[in-house]
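Support reply, case 0932

Customer input (verbatim):
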Amino acid sequence: MTTVSADAAEQPTGLDASVSIRGAAVRPADRLFGWLTRGSGIFILVLMGAIFVFLLARAIPAVRVDSVNFFTSSVWFPDHSPAEFGIAALAFGTLMTAIIAMVIAVPVGYGVALFTAHYAPRSISMVLGYIVDLLAAVPSIIFGLWGLQVLMPRSQDFVKFLDDHLSFIPLFRNDLDIYTKSIFIASLVLALMILPTVSAISREVYRQVPRDHLEAATALGATRWETMRLAVFPYARPGMISAAMLGLGRALGETIAVALILSATYTINWQITEPGGNSFAANIALKWKEASGVGIGALIASGLVLFVITLVVNMAARFVIMRRQAFSGANG
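Our regenerated output:
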């Protein structure tokens, strides 16, 4: 007959054990860490609120004296009497360049990440990963100068090819026969700038896929691509969305590179291969030094709109991630 010692009988088991652990005294270091993390989160929220209040307080006086519709007008004469300025052209240029850059960069970034994580030999994967990560450290002004001096002259033949063969699509039609300083060129530069962000984050997410998932798909007879489609993508989808949204955030707020490429005109032109276009960030960078009075308020008002757009994009991305997370293996 087996006997149970008194010490063993006193040990909590099952639910009692978990209750005992939860009820245990918290160490001072853990309590301090909890306070620091909670305080950091609150500080970020307070800081964002303070930025919003500052922008709103400085923007309202300028918008009140605006003699045209701030949201639908494309003119930018804040120093005239009466003041006339609107963000329609700026919003169009910002969103159009960012969307085209995402269309180009996101598929390429996912492909590079998938190749380095699951296809390439380890030696090639490490070298290629270092090169892609290194691109993220290149300053934006370098990308802008490269786009202005190298990419723009060498891409004119390609843009003309688009005009010659795809002119039935309004986006690629060019009536001016000038193929520089366009939204399309700026979008190519932005695509190269956000590519390292999308690729690096996606690569790390792909590598987190449990080995059991990959081996199970292979054991069932799946090909390499079927394994990626059935085992890797469902698990990594929230991380892939996060990578794309981070890239979009950089594309929306990029300043110097876009300012160097675009010709800074306040018109809405759907023919993206023609010269023209502007963005919120580029306009603020170009006009801030010469602005005064209502002009500064107008620039701050446009910055407030960009702040709200970026916030809405990130909130939408967070909502999508939360919806998708239930269908992936991200929670274990």
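We compared this against your earlier run and they match. Two observations from our side: Residues 1-6, 14-21, 327-332 have pLDDT under 50 and may be disordered. The longest strand covers residues 76-77. Please reopen the case if you see a mismatch on your end.
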